[in-house]
Amino acid sequence: MQRIFAKSTLRNYWEKHPESEQYLKTWFDIAMNSDWRTPNDVKQTYSKASILKDSRIVFNIKGNDYRLVAKFNFEKQWMFIRFIGTHREYDKINAEKI
Fold it and tell me: Model confidence over 52-91: pLDDT tens digits?
């Protein structure tokens, strides 16, 4: 089971973008109940996730309408949400540094 920091980041986003709420809640539930020990474990659940440097993974949310960048500590089973935004907003950030 993952420990996700912080669900409030998700909640704040879906309050501003209600159309994303159910998709982010589904992602959260799957992530919380997964036993991801490696990036390959994540890819088994989310085949379209992109593995980046520095233990970061990009998830496509709602058919790629949104992107979520998470930084993982697989050893401790921690996941830090670093970014949530539209595909256009994602294109303006450096996902490997955010």
Answer: 999 999 999 998 899 999 999 999 999 999 999 998 999 9
Select from 51, 72, 57, 61 the least CA-distant residue to 28: 61
Residue 63, domain member (yes or no) = yes
Number of domains in the chain: 1
Answering whether pTM is above 0.90, one says: yes
Torsion angle of the four alpha carbons 18, 27, 57, 65, in this order, in degrees rounded to the nearest 10: -40
Outline where the chain has alpha helix (H): 7-16, 21-32, 39-45, 87-90
CATH number at residue 48: 3.30.2310
3-class state of residue 30 by DSSP = helix
Kindly give the interhelix angle for 7-16 and 21-32, rounded to the nearest 10 degrees: 170
